From TrEMBL:
<dbReference type="InterPro" id="IPR023801">
    <property type="entry name" value="His_deacetylse_dom"/>
</dbReference>
<dbReference type="Pfam" id="PF00850">
    <property type="entry name" value="Hist_deacetyl"/>
</dbReference>
<dbReference type="GO" id="GO:0004407">
    <property type="term" value="F:histone deacetylase activity"/>
</dbReference>
<comment type="similarity">
    <text>Belongs to the histone deacetylase family.</text>
</comment>
<dbReference type="GO" id="GO:0040029">
    <property type="term" value="P:epigenetic regulation of gene expression"/>
</dbReference>
<protein>
    <submittedName>
        <fullName>Histone deacetylase superfamily protein</fullName>
    </submittedName>
</protein>
<dbReference type="InterPro" id="IPR037138">
    <property type="entry name" value="His_deacetylse_dom_sf"/>
</dbReference>
<feature type="domain" description="Histone deacetylase">
    <location>
        <begin position="20"/>
        <end position="306"/>
    </location>
</feature>
<dbReference type="InterPro" id="IPR000286">
    <property type="entry name" value="HDACs"/>
</dbReference>
<dbReference type="InterPro" id="IPR023696">
    <property type="entry name" value="Ureohydrolase_dom_sf"/>
</dbReference>
């Protein structure tokens, strides 16, 4: 299976200040692990371009886009604070544009049958960004931009977004809540930022909150009981993954207790759905994961599964 690894060196330059958990070493941790496991040279490496403005405006308001662009610091200027944990330096706008551009590029390559699936190793992450608001380390909603691109440019009728980050994908949920073409499945610790826990809606929204201390076994049970039946019923033509690895037991940003192998398992389940309904079309976009060694191993398990390697 041809799997693309889409990233850009400029994503490293985005910096929200000393001690911030969302840091450039996250991308190095994944890269180093893939090289150590001799997977790096088996991937198709693609450089992420800047996203087109039209793609951003499918999911974000003009006002939101202008706010980010107008407040991006110039060379040598101080950080601009959007929220206490979401800040921009002089490279953040460029990084955010390329993070969103990675997903749309992946969609186009898959639809053109140049690759079968892709992992977008990007930062800043995106799934907390709402239509008109940045938060939770996120400026633009990368996964929503990619999904809307698939719907509009490639005229698909049904796409699914699955999100296994430890934090609920409130931005993705808000952007697509009125769009019947999108099924959104989200697993997360609750209560925890962003403190969103809406009831599930059949064929549209499948929220599966987990209590503090929940293990991978409890996550797997929720996926089997709720996600998989919904995905089979929906029959998505394309599947998008918000791939957060911060539910790992080593990650102290939250208190779930997943193991490395849990990320391989859920990826394999998603691949089985994609094989049956979606012509193997999967775009995975990095969200959270802040314990560097655990992030590297978990992302490797996820990517190895995308590559269909044991």
């Amino acid at each position: 299976m041809r799997t693309a690894y889409i990233t850009h060196a400029d994503l490293i330059k985005h910096d929200m200040g000393d001690g911030h958990p969302e840091r450039s070493s996250r991308l190095y941790a994944i890269q180093d692990q893939l090289k150590h496991q001799q997977l790096w040279d088996l991937l198709e490496h693609i450089e992420a371009p800047n996203v087109e403005q039209a793609a951003l405006l499918r999911v974000h308001s003009q006002q939101h886009l202008e706010y980010i662009v107008d407040n991006a610091p110039g060379s040598g200027q101080a950080l601009f604070q959007i929220t206490p944990d979401t800040l921009m330096n002089e490279h953040s706008l460029d990084a955010a544009l390329k993070a969103a551009g990675a997903g749309t590029t992946a969609v186009d390559l898959i639809m053109d049958k140049q690759i079968e699936n892709a992992f977008c190793a990007v930062r800043p992450p995106g799934h907390h960004a709402e239509r008109s608001k940045s938060m939770g380390f996120c400026f633009f909603n990368n996964i929503a931009v990619a999904a809307a691109h698939a719907l509009e440019k490639h005229t698909l009728d049904r796409i699914a977004i699955v999100d296994f980050d430890v934090h609920q994908g409130n931005g993705t949920q808000e952007i697509f809540e009125a769009d019947d073409r999108v099924l959104f499945c989200s697993s997360y610790e609750h209560p925890l930022f962003p403190f969103s826990n809406r009831p599930s809606i059949p064929n549209k929204l499948i929220n599966t909150p987990l209590k503090s201390g929940s293990t991978g076994a409890e996550f797997r049970a929720q996926v089997q009981q709720h996600w998989l039946p919904a995905l089979h019923a929906f029959k998505p033509q394309f599947i998008f993954i918000s791939a957060g690895f911060d539910a790992h037991w080593e990650d102290d940003i939250a208190t779930l207790c997943f193991q490395d192998q849990d990320f391989a398992w859920v990826t394999q389940e998603i691949i089985a759905i994609a094989r049956r309904y979606s012509h193997n079309r999967i775009v995975s976009v990095l969200e959270g994961g802040y314990a560097l060694k655990a992030l590297g191993r978990s992302a490797e398990q996820h990517i190895r599964a995308l590559m269909q390697l044991s």
